[in-house]
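Class prep. Protein, please:
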Amino acid sequence: MGKIGIYGSSFDPITNVHLWTASTVAHRCKLDKVIFLPCSNKRKDKQMNTKDEHRWNMVQLAIKDNERFIADNYEMLQDAWKISTYETLKYFKQKYKNDEIYFIMGADLLIDIGEGRWGNSELLVKENKFIVMARDGIDMVKAISKSPILRNNDDGNTFHLIDKGLSMEISSTYIREEFKLGGEPRYLLPGKCYEYCINHDLYK
Protein backbone atom coordinates (compact mmCIF):
# COMPACT_ATOMS: atom_id res chain seq x y z
CA MET A 1 0.00 0.00 0.00
CA GLY A 2 1.32 3.41 -0.98
CA LYS A 3 0.58 6.90 0.32
CA ILE A 4 -0.62 9.56 -2.10
CA GLY A 5 -1.21 13.26 -1.45
CA ILE A 6 -3.74 15.22 -3.52
CA TYR A 7 -2.55 18.80 -3.89
CA GLY A 8 -5.33 20.94 -5.30
CA SER A 9 -4.82 24.60 -6.17
CA SER A 10 -5.47 27.18 -8.88
CA PHE A 11 -1.76 27.04 -9.85
CA ASP A 12 -2.34 30.40 -11.52
CA PRO A 13 0.60 30.20 -12.11
CA ILE A 14 2.37 27.34 -10.33
CA THR A 15 5.24 28.71 -8.23
CA ASN A 16 8.49 27.45 -6.74
CA VAL A 17 6.76 27.57 -3.35
CA HIS A 18 4.13 25.09 -4.59
CA LEU A 19 6.92 22.72 -5.61
CA TRP A 20 8.89 23.21 -2.41
CA THR A 21 5.77 22.69 -0.30
CA ALA A 22 4.83 19.49 -2.15
CA SER A 23 8.37 18.16 -1.82
CA THR A 24 8.56 18.98 1.89
CA VAL A 25 5.16 17.44 2.64
CA ALA A 26 6.07 14.31 0.67
CA HIS A 27 9.33 14.01 2.62
CA ARG A 28 7.87 14.58 6.08
CA CYS A 29 4.72 12.49 5.57
CA LYS A 30 6.49 9.71 3.64
CA LEU A 31 4.28 10.10 0.58
CA ASP A 32 5.04 7.97 -2.47
CA LYS A 33 3.32 10.37 -4.87
CA VAL A 34 1.92 13.90 -4.90
CA ILE A 35 -0.84 14.55 -7.42
CA PHE A 36 -1.05 18.17 -8.59
CA LEU A 37 -4.72 18.88 -9.25
CA PRO A 38 -5.39 22.24 -10.94
CA CYS A 39 -8.83 23.76 -10.32
CA SER A 40 -11.24 24.19 -13.19
CA ASN A 41 -12.24 27.55 -14.66
CA LYS A 42 -15.81 26.33 -14.24
CA ARG A 43 -15.66 26.52 -10.44
CA LYS A 44 -18.02 29.17 -9.09
CA ASP A 45 -16.02 29.86 -5.93
CA LYS A 46 -12.79 30.81 -7.72
CA GLN A 47 -11.89 33.39 -10.35
CA MET A 48 -9.04 32.21 -12.57
CA ASN A 49 -6.75 34.64 -14.37
CA THR A 50 -5.89 32.49 -17.35
CA LYS A 51 -7.28 29.53 -19.28
CA ASP A 52 -7.25 25.95 -18.03
CA GLU A 53 -5.03 25.04 -20.96
CA HIS A 54 -2.23 27.39 -19.87
CA ARG A 55 -2.34 26.43 -16.19
CA TRP A 56 -2.36 22.73 -17.12
CA ASN A 57 0.61 23.15 -19.46
CA MET A 58 2.61 25.02 -16.80
CA VAL A 59 1.94 22.38 -14.12
CA GLN A 60 3.22 19.69 -16.48
CA LEU A 61 6.32 21.73 -17.29
CA ALA A 62 6.99 22.40 -13.59
CA ILE A 63 6.85 18.80 -12.36
CA LYS A 64 8.32 17.07 -15.39
CA ASP A 65 11.65 16.18 -13.77
CA ASN A 66 10.30 14.83 -10.45
CA GLU A 67 9.19 11.21 -10.67
CA ARG A 68 7.27 11.53 -7.40
CA PHE A 69 5.01 14.28 -8.83
CA ILE A 70 1.99 13.59 -11.07
CA ALA A 71 -0.38 16.04 -12.79
CA ASP A 72 -4.07 15.16 -13.08
CA ASN A 73 -6.68 17.24 -14.90
CA TYR A 74 -9.69 15.40 -13.43
CA GLU A 75 -11.43 18.53 -12.11
CA MET A 76 -10.81 20.46 -15.33
CA LEU A 77 -12.75 17.81 -17.26
CA GLN A 78 -15.83 17.75 -14.99
CA ASP A 79 -19.11 19.57 -15.41
CA ALA A 80 -19.36 22.54 -13.04
CA TRP A 81 -22.05 20.93 -10.86
CA LYS A 82 -19.87 17.86 -10.23
CA ILE A 83 -16.82 19.76 -9.00
CA SER A 84 -16.38 19.41 -5.24
CA THR A 85 -13.54 18.17 -3.07
CA TYR A 86 -15.78 15.44 -1.68
CA GLU A 87 -16.52 14.04 -5.16
CA THR A 88 -12.92 14.48 -6.24
CA LEU A 89 -11.58 12.45 -3.33
CA LYS A 90 -14.16 9.71 -4.00
CA TYR A 91 -12.78 9.52 -7.53
CA PHE A 92 -9.15 9.22 -6.42
CA LYS A 93 -9.94 6.65 -3.72
CA GLN A 94 -11.60 4.56 -6.42
CA LYS A 95 -8.72 5.07 -8.85
CA TYR A 96 -6.07 4.16 -6.25
CA LYS A 97 -7.96 1.50 -4.30
CA ASN A 98 -4.87 -0.04 -2.78
CA ASP A 99 -3.34 3.22 -1.54
CA GLU A 100 -3.97 5.69 1.26
CA ILE A 101 -5.20 9.03 -0.05
CA TYR A 102 -4.54 12.34 1.75
CA PHE A 103 -5.85 15.78 0.83
CA ILE A 104 -3.14 18.43 1.23
CA MET A 105 -4.38 21.87 2.30
CA GLY A 106 -3.57 24.97 4.30
CA ALA A 107 -4.95 25.66 7.78
CA ASP A 108 -7.17 28.43 6.38
CA LEU A 109 -9.13 25.80 4.45
CA LEU A 110 -9.42 23.69 7.60
CA ILE A 111 -11.36 26.55 9.18
CA ASP A 112 -13.64 26.86 6.14
CA ILE A 113 -14.48 23.15 6.22
CA GLY A 114 -15.02 23.30 9.98
CA GLU A 115 -17.54 26.08 9.49
CA GLY A 116 -19.45 24.01 6.91
CA ARG A 117 -18.58 26.20 3.92
CA TRP A 118 -17.58 23.29 1.70
CA GLY A 119 -20.01 20.87 0.05
CA ASN A 120 -20.66 17.79 2.18
CA SER A 121 -18.31 19.17 4.85
CA GLU A 122 -19.19 16.55 7.45
CA LEU A 123 -18.89 13.56 5.11
CA LEU A 124 -15.72 15.06 3.64
CA VAL A 125 -14.05 14.97 7.06
CA LYS A 126 -15.61 11.69 8.14
CA GLU A 127 -14.50 9.74 5.08
CA ASN A 128 -11.07 11.22 4.31
CA LYS A 129 -7.62 12.01 5.66
CA PHE A 130 -5.91 15.39 5.52
CA ILE A 131 -2.41 16.83 5.66
CA VAL A 132 -2.80 20.35 6.99
CA MET A 133 -0.07 22.98 6.59
CA ALA A 134 0.30 25.81 9.09
CA ARG A 135 -0.71 29.35 8.19
CA ASP A 136 0.34 32.44 10.12
CA GLY A 137 -2.05 33.29 12.93
CA ILE A 138 -4.04 30.03 12.81
CA ASP A 139 -4.00 27.59 15.72
CA MET A 140 -4.84 24.31 14.00
CA VAL A 141 -5.55 22.33 17.18
CA LYS A 142 -7.88 25.05 18.42
CA ALA A 143 -9.61 25.19 15.01
CA ILE A 144 -10.35 21.47 15.23
CA SER A 145 -11.54 21.60 18.84
CA LYS A 146 -13.86 24.57 18.15
CA SER A 147 -15.64 22.92 15.21
CA PRO A 148 -18.22 20.15 15.84
CA ILE A 149 -17.69 18.95 12.26
CA LEU A 150 -13.94 18.57 12.70
CA ARG A 151 -13.69 17.29 16.28
CA ASN A 152 -16.53 14.76 16.05
CA ASN A 153 -15.20 13.17 12.88
CA ASP A 154 -11.55 12.98 13.92
CA ASP A 155 -10.54 9.43 14.81
CA GLY A 156 -7.00 10.45 15.70
CA ASN A 157 -5.70 9.78 12.18
CA THR A 158 -7.88 12.20 10.24
CA PHE A 159 -5.54 15.21 10.43
CA HIS A 160 -1.76 15.22 10.03
CA LEU A 161 -0.79 18.71 11.16
CA ILE A 162 2.48 20.21 9.88
CA ASP A 163 3.17 23.29 11.96
CA LYS A 164 6.86 24.03 11.46
CA GLY A 165 8.90 25.40 8.58
CA LEU A 166 6.23 25.69 5.89
CA SER A 167 5.67 29.43 5.92
CA MET A 168 6.75 31.07 2.67
CA GLU A 169 4.86 34.09 1.47
CA ILE A 170 5.50 34.25 -2.29
CA SER A 171 2.09 33.68 -3.88
CA SER A 172 0.66 33.31 -7.37
CA THR A 173 -1.04 36.67 -6.80
CA TYR A 174 2.34 38.33 -6.18
CA ILE A 175 3.74 36.82 -9.39
CA ARG A 176 0.72 37.91 -11.43
CA GLU A 177 1.08 41.45 -10.10
CA GLU A 178 4.76 41.50 -11.05
CA PHE A 179 3.98 40.41 -14.60
CA LYS A 180 1.13 42.92 -14.88
CA LEU A 181 3.15 45.90 -13.62
CA GLY A 182 6.36 45.10 -15.46
CA GLY A 183 8.22 43.59 -12.50
CA GLU A 184 10.64 40.67 -12.61
CA PRO A 185 9.33 37.42 -11.07
CA ARG A 186 11.81 35.21 -12.97
CA TYR A 187 13.09 33.21 -10.00
CA LEU A 188 9.76 32.90 -8.18
CA LEU A 189 8.43 30.24 -10.54
CA PRO A 190 10.08 27.42 -12.50
CA GLY A 191 12.19 28.70 -15.40
CA LYS A 192 10.16 26.87 -18.06
CA CYS A 193 6.95 28.33 -16.63
CA TYR A 194 8.43 31.83 -16.59
CA GLU A 195 9.32 31.44 -20.27
CA TYR A 196 5.83 30.06 -20.97
CA CYS A 197 4.23 33.15 -19.39
CA ILE A 198 6.45 35.44 -21.48
CA ASN A 199 5.88 33.53 -24.73
CA HIS A 200 2.09 33.45 -24.26
CA ASP A 201 1.86 37.00 -22.90
CA LEU A 202 0.09 35.85 -19.71
CA TYR A 203 -0.94 38.04 -16.77
CA LYS A 204 -0.29 41.34 -18.58
